[in-house]
Amino acid sequence: MSSNRNNDQACAEYFKNQKIYQRCFQELWKKWRSYGKPTGRITLKHTSGEERRGIGGITGKVFYEEDIRFTFAEFEQGLQKTRFAPVDMKKVLEGYFGEELVTKQDQKKKTQKQKEDFLKDISKGFRGKSGTKSVAYEWTEQMLSTKKYGYQILIREFEKDPDQAGVLAENVGNALEKLHKISNTEEQPLAVFAAEISGNPHYFDRGTTAGLLLVRGICCIRKTEVPENAYQWRELMETEGIIPDNVSSMLHVYGLRLKKGTAWHPAYEAFCEEGEPCVITMENLKGITEVQPLGKNVFIVENEMVFSYLIDNLPDKNCTLLCTSGQLRFVSQKLLSLILENGTDVYYSGDIDPDGMGIADRLWMKFGDRIHMWRMSPEDYEKSISREHIGENGLAKLFHIHHPLLEKTAEYVKQKQLSGYQENILKELLSDIKKAGEP
Fold first, then answer.
1. CA 161 → CA 95, 123, 154, 157, 158, distances in Å?
2. How many helices (H) does the chain have, and how many strands (E)?
3. C-alpha dist (Å) from residue 311 to 276, 427, 434
């Protein structure tokens, strides 16, 4: 065996000193990595005369063209007829390149084992610290067994930097443990919670790697689906007692009373008395137990300019109007829940285009038939139509509308392929609010 090893090393040294075999050995290395044995066809393009003579001398072939072809088996068999025989081709290649020759399949298995070992170490750490009943331990065990709940995110980070991935997993596990302990206590701002866990107040922000992983960890423990949008994300965090930013989520309101505890809030009473609109944020809704519209119904518009026009032109200020400014933020949906609890019907009007109809449709699907589509019929579309063309991506969205009336309107929009805007039906919107206020 010692003699064979010497033969292999001597053979490798010989070919290392012969530059004409360099490209040949690179291809031999690739083939072995792919197949794990001396097999496969090798092609070398634009070879020199020296390369052709050298390789031909080993394989026993004569090459006339610059592009040459031969099999790995022919080259290996040729080596067994040289003065270095017998040789182990794998050992020769390892001696030539100075590193262990591992097949792609073996490398894949090795890499997978490293990933599994990484997660097992994390899981073992949580088990040692908090026991087998800890939520952090449950999360890591679920990742291992199901390859879900953030597995891909954590493995991707592991491939970038194993040490940082370990820190990430530990922080998220610690966060899950903390949430489990405080779930029934006082609410805590997300930034404060993140700073306590990691020292960085933005560590668990929505969209960050840690934030994405934390959400999946929570979903694992709660056995729920991953949030699909910002509203669902906020709902999930709030169920854990974590309150995201309460200021940027806002809407404009006109003619709505808000009760805090057992008394009507004096600030909103003043806005109602003065006939002025105000802005409400999630922070303002903290502690609000009830709302009371000034009018019989609540009207909602999507556009700020439309909101301002309607307020400025109302002869009777005894009405309630909201402006969502496009996509319904969490504060809008929270306030709507309070309005519907009061028994008031809501009339929603948005642009008659793919996005506007999508917002209206999702609102109806969430709150049901107490949400009435306002000026969004096919007839209203004809009045509100613009010259703004709708692209293919927009038209595709119209196939996912579920509300019966909006579904009919969507068919007209598909035919015209033009957007309809609230600004074109301002008088109709105003007239509806005036009629609603009549005795």
1. 31, 18, 10, 6, 5
2. 21, 15
3. 9, 12, 11
Expressed in percent and rounded to 5, the helix, strand and coil fractions of the chain are 60, 15, 30
Could you tell me the pTM of the whole model? Answer: 0.56
Burial category of 156 from C-beta neighbours within 10 Å (exposed 0-12, middle 13-18, buried 19 and up): exposed
What pLDDT was estimated at residue 315?
78
- The SS3 call for residue 302 is coil
**The pair of three-digit structure tokens given for residue 273, joined into one six-digit string:** 């008395």
Q: Which residues of the chain have pLDDT under 70?
A: 1-5, 183-187, 246-248, 439
Half-sphere exposure for 37 (CA within 13 Å, toward CB): 2
Buried b vs exposed e over 17-26: b needs ≥16 C-beta within 10 Å?
eeebbebbbe
Tokens describing residue 57: 């001398």
Residue 182 sits at the vertex; the CA angle it makes with 176 and 187, to the nearest 5 degrees, is 110
**Residue whose entry in the numeric block shows the structure tokens 């040692």:** 128
Residue 214 to residue 199: CA distance in whole angstroms: 16
Quick one: pLDDT at residue 105? 83
Q: Which two tokens stand for residue 137?
A: 């331990």
Distance, CA of 340 to CA of 342 (rounded, Å): 5
Query: Please, are residues 188 and 174 in contact by the beta-carbon 8 Å criterion?
Result: no
Q: What is the pLDDT of residue 109?
A: 82
Structure tokens at 180: 């489990």
Give the Å distances, CA to CA, from 142 to 133, 147, 171, 217, 340.
Answer: 13, 7, 17, 10, 40
Cα separations in angstroms, 212 against 150, 154, 193, 195, 373: 8, 10, 15, 17, 35
Cα 147 from Cα 149, distance rounded (Å): 7
With residue 290 as reference, give the H or E element that holds it.
strand 288-293
